[in-house]
Amino acid sequence: IFCERRGRLEKSDVTFASDDHLLQIIQRIVSRVGRRVDATSPMVDARLADGSRVNAIIPPLALDGSLVSIRRFPDRPLKADDLISKKSVAAEMIEFLAGAVKARLNVLISGGTGSGKTTLLNMLSGYIPDHERIATIEDAAELRLQQSHVVRMETRPPNVEGQGAVTCRDLARNALRMRPDRLVVGESRGPEALDMLQAMNTGHDGSMTTLHANDTRDAISRLEMMVGMAGFDLPIWVIRKQIASAVHLVVQAARLTGGTRKVMKISEITGMEGDNITMHDLFVFKQTGLNAEGIASGVFMSTGIRPHCLEHLESMGIRLSPGLFDRRSLMTC
What we know:
By secondary structure, the protein is of the alpha/beta class. It has 9 helices and 15 strands. The chain has a 10-stranded mixed beta sheet with strand order 8-7-9-10-6-11-12-13-14-15, with helices on both faces. The radius of gyration is 21 Å and the shape is globular.
């Protein structure tokens, strides 16, 4: 058994008695949440009663014996102050992102597995006004929005006969009929990205989602690919025009050497130049090396570029600190 503590995997002294013992534990876990795992369905992904996510895979797909992964979440969702104190993000970056959420800009959060995308999405959702109706769509419910009017939906896998599956795309289409002010998709993985873009372009400003990508520019390329998976033979310039008009900000999260998590970049999409999407970086984290404990160190910086959306923020009554976007170092860590 391995546990992640402070961003690093550590081997535990606790062990299972045998492979059969582990398989019995897996069967007990998944049966309590109405799922099954056996030779005909050797993989399962589910949410436990306490909100934890569990993934299990058994032989013959798991070559060396059954495998189970459990992702637990803190009792209290991390707030902006927590992320700043952990030096995961600079206060100036939070100020800008909070203003963007309040001003109903559409935000895309990208990063690798375990980089803190959902934590960041949870934190940013805290700046959504309490009177707004929010629809959330997830594969396994992880979001913990604190507003009073939240409509939560979760996908459903097929049954034993392979019937009855409800996909993210099905829920996205349904959510648009529920008069949400904002749509929050826990993670965009496929054709539901097209429905998300259409929602952002048809009055559901302030919507947010996450996806897997290594950079803010890679995130746009992945989004293009996922829209192409929707089955419509759209020219690439049409897809890019949809993205450029729908998405305002891309936030990149990463887990660096030593397990520390950082907001690596905040980029703004500025429009189209020919058939290409144009964007620029507003804030970045530059890694400068490793400290004595082998943990990545560096500096958060403002690039000195004034965002195009600043006028929109001001029109929505959002006043940011003077000099927020001046080129300078924000925090060394």
